[in-house]
Design goal:
A: mainly alpha, B: Rossmann fold, three-stranded parallel β-sheet, 7 helices
């Protein structure tokens, strides 16, 4: 047990330090935060951003304010999960496979479980950190902070599990670029729900659809058990599906390295 | 797991973490191996990597990367060590470092399994060497330190000994024909052409896969002569049978290295600083013959 914890600790530090040094990972952090800032001021330019600033809150209907708050937070949440939980993980693992460093680790008595656990935890930490930055930059009410981070962390779990599978299935960074597109589209799907009710009816079943719907309910102050049970079930179902896929595939994919 | 042995692996395409430095890389593996960071520093120094300790792994040369791989393995104090082409990217100095470490670990009881080519690299490793042909493994000749005897011994090349296919044109019996021009050329094949090699150009003769090759400026040319014929012909030009499978041009030897009581190598002064095996018995013969003290 002590040896396991020592190895996981070493892997966590290595992966975290490597993530900071990796230019691709910097993009994963900058993009969602940049989008949060852009949307905040883009809407402000169009005369819709005012509600986000306390000084003009009284001039705008509270429903409109919460709608804009939801759009900015929903986008930044999905972007943070997509970039921090999916892209960083898929590219990171693909790079390790391409350069055979995963094999080096496994031949140095590090188990597959230790490697993926450390990777997953670092991706979760990165996603939460990006979510915090996004929230700060969005200018949303601090009363939503706890919910935003909680929903972000829960929504990341299934995406991390799926991304571990996709990352391990990628031969190199080139294939990672290809494989990460559908994952990213699935994660960002709730953002497109605002375009029409029909699209919304479909994307609410995406991996991040559940937490996105819960975020909308929280912002609109409509969070009740009756309204929350479907998004909760969707989120839980994705976690179960991703966990089963991960359990079935990760060992075989790591062996192929 | 009871009975499990500590293992370490060195694979040809091991890349290392590009954004690490040798120092951080070895410290990470020291943590995995449950040894102190001081040992990582010791490994860094032992394998001559202190000069690039803070350079990114991505910017290391192939030789430095290979040394980093050996430094990593040394942290685990392995009982079994698998190495794929361990000497491939190493120059003379680095090769000496690695061979010394392998000899030291081997004496300490580590079992080494190495694969690679050419055969002479395998023969520099501890233990027995095998060569592979059409999916079958053949034991390379065991050198007991006695030279020349046992013609036709297992693995003795002697292929294609066709008449006139490069046999020496001069012999000791010709000593009483004073006005005859004494010519000695070693015939070797290069594609369709037959090369007539001046013995002074030849760095060494290698026997591998039942074919004998003359090495000239880093190129290997197959010759139809047997090792015994080549030894007899080349002896008077300063060649010495340092191993059953090798005849070396002693004039080209720049250094004799000794790693353990029974492990010797000859390092040549050719461009790649080729290392050739030298068995203990033959080392004594060589010393006597060339009057080295």
């Amino acid at each position: 047990m002590k040896a396991t914890l020592r190895k996981i600790g070493a892997l966590l530090v290595k992966d975290a330090v490597d993530m900071v040094k990796n230019p691709t990972m910097i993009v994963c952090i900058v993009m969602p935060v940049g989008m949060a800032v852009f949307y905040r001021f883009f809407m402000g330019e169009m005369g819709l951003g005012g509600p986000l600033r306390q000084s003009v809150m009284t001039d705008v209907q509270p429903q409109l304010a919460s709608m804009i708050e939801y759009i900015v937070l929903s986008l930044s949440l999905c972007m943070a999960i997509g970039m921090g939980g999916a892209t960083s993980l898929i590219y990171g693992l693909a790079e390790e496979k391409e350069k055979h460093t995963l094999r080096t680790l496994m031949l140095a008595n590090v188990t597959a479980e230790q490697i993926v656990l450390a990777r997953g935890l670092v991706a979760l930490g990165l996603t939460v950190a990006v979510e915090v930055l996004c929230f700060v930059m969005s200018g949303a009410s601090w009363s939503l902070f706890g919910w935003y981070i909680l929903l972000g962390a829960v929504g990341t779990v299934s995406v991390i599990l799926l991304s571990l599978v996709v990352g391990l299935a990628s031969r190199d960074q080139m294939t990672a670029g290809l494989y990460s597109v559908p994952v990213l589209l699935l994660v960002l799907a709730p953002v497109f729900g605002g375009f029409s009710p029909d699209i919304r009816a479909v994307v609410r079943f995406a991996p991040t659809g559940g937490v996105d719907e819960l975020l909308r309910l929280v912002i609109a102050n409509d969070l009740t058990l009756a309204a929350a049970w479907v998004p909760l079930v969707v989120t839980a179902a994705w976690i179960v599906v991703a966990a089963v896929a991960f359990k079935l595939l990760y060992r075989r994919l790591l062996r192929d390295n | 797991m009871q009975g499990a042995r500590r293992t370490a692996f060195f694979l040809e395409d091991d890349g290392g973490f590009d954004r690490d430095t040798p120092r951080s890389y070895l410290r990470f593996f020291a943590q995995l191996a449950a040894v102190s960071p001081a040992m990582a520093n010791d490994a860094l120094v032992h394998f001559g990597l202190e000069g690039c300790a803070h350079t990114l792994v991505a910017k290391l040369s192939a030789e430095e990367r290979a040394l980093l791989g050996f430094a990593r393995m040394s942290l685990f104090e392995p009982e079994v060590c698998f190495c794929e082409r361990p000497l491939l990217d190493l120059g003379a100095e680095a090769r000496a470092l690695v061979l010394a470490w392998i000899a030291e670990r081997s004496e300490a009881g580590t079992l080494f399994v190495t694969v690679g080519q050419p055969l002479r690299e395998a023969l520099l490793m501890p233990g027995r060497a095998f060569w592979e042909e059409e999916g079958r493994l053949f034991a390379a000749e065991v050198d007991d330190g006695t030279s020349g005897e046992g013609a036709g011994a297992a693995g003795e090349p002697g292929t294609a000994s066709a008449p006139g296919a490069g046999a020496p044109t001069d012999g000791p019996e010709g000593a009483d024909v004073f006005d005859e021009v004494r010519v000695c050329k070693i015939a070797a094949k290069a594609g369709e052409a037959t090369l007539l090699l001046d013995p002074r150009e030849i760095d060494f003769i290698e026997s591998a896969n039942r074919v004998n090759y003359a090495s000239v400026r880093g190129e290997l040319y197959p010759t139809a002569l047997t090792m015994d014929e080549l030894e007899a012909t080349l002896e008077r030009f300063g060649f010495f049978r340092c191993h059953r499978s090798y005849i070396v041009n002693v004039q080209k030897v720049s250094r004799v290295e000794r790693y353990t009581r029974n492990t010797f190598n000859l390092v040549l002064s050719d461009a790649p600083h080729t290392s050739l095996p030298l068995s203990k018995g033959r080392a004594d013969q060589m010393r006597e013959r060339f009057n080295w003290r």
